[in-house]
Amino acid sequence: GDSVTQMEGPVTLSEEAFLTINCTYTATGYPSLFWYVQYPGEGLQLLLKATKADDKGSNKGFEATYRKETTSFHLEKGSVQVSDSAVYFCALSDPGRGSTLGRLYFGRGTQLTVWP
Amino acid sequence: NAGVTQTPKFQVLKTGQSMTLQCAQDMNHNSMYWYRQDPGMGLRLIYYSASEGTTDKGEVPNGYNVSRLNKREFSLRLESAAPSQTSVYFCAGKGTLGNTIYFGEGSWLTVV
Question: What is the distance in angstroms between the Cα of B82 and the nearest Cα belonging to chain A?
Fold first, then answer.
């Protein structure tokens, strides 16, 4: 079945460090891929998405490229800030398996803490 | 435009009590969802509704019931709360175009 595996946390970085959070997926169709961010005490917000192979999603300095050959969607940011401290979730939605339902399969989340 | 709104934000229940979590969306979503979030488990789907008048079980439906009252509202009911239902609950919605799901701010539920 469909699934998402993302790197275990927590991840602790100093401000302006480079960030990578790995995410790989398993899907039978051609999924859309997402990164969601959850700030402390809040709900999940869509950070970026990519809907087909080689697409790059980007937002707020974060980027992720849909790599079909490696089934990966790693999240990167060149210079993190204290305000980026949050939990990051990788997710997929496979339109070939009930696209009208749009069910998302989530990774377990990666806690990022950025120190000044 | 409030998006997806859920209430209450915080609730403490005693074992065996019942309660309903309310969710409403003003984004004209056809599909609505209830997830629970537990430490180290990510988000797990409890129930979903593909359209008004239909509901289906997700990964972890036991102990819950739902009602899709109309297109805007999708409620989650705990008939007899158990400590294992202590969690953060998220309502979400998805429209007909694209496949992005939008989440509410969450409801923190503690069962003692």
Answer: 23
Q: Render pLDDT for B83-95 as a digit per residue (tens, 0 to 9).
A: 999 999 999 998 7
Mutating which of A101, A106, A111 best tests the B interface, going by the most B Cβ atoms within 10 A? A101
Range B22-34 average pLDDT:
90
Retrieve residue B62's tokens: 């036991």
C-beta separation of A116 from A15 below 8 A:
yes
3-state helix, strand, coil in chain A (%, to 5): 5, 50, 45
Q: Is A49 on the interface with B (CB under 8 A)?
A: yes
Q: Which two tokens stand for residue A42?
A: 């809040």
Chain B residues with CB under 8 Å of A107 CB are 42
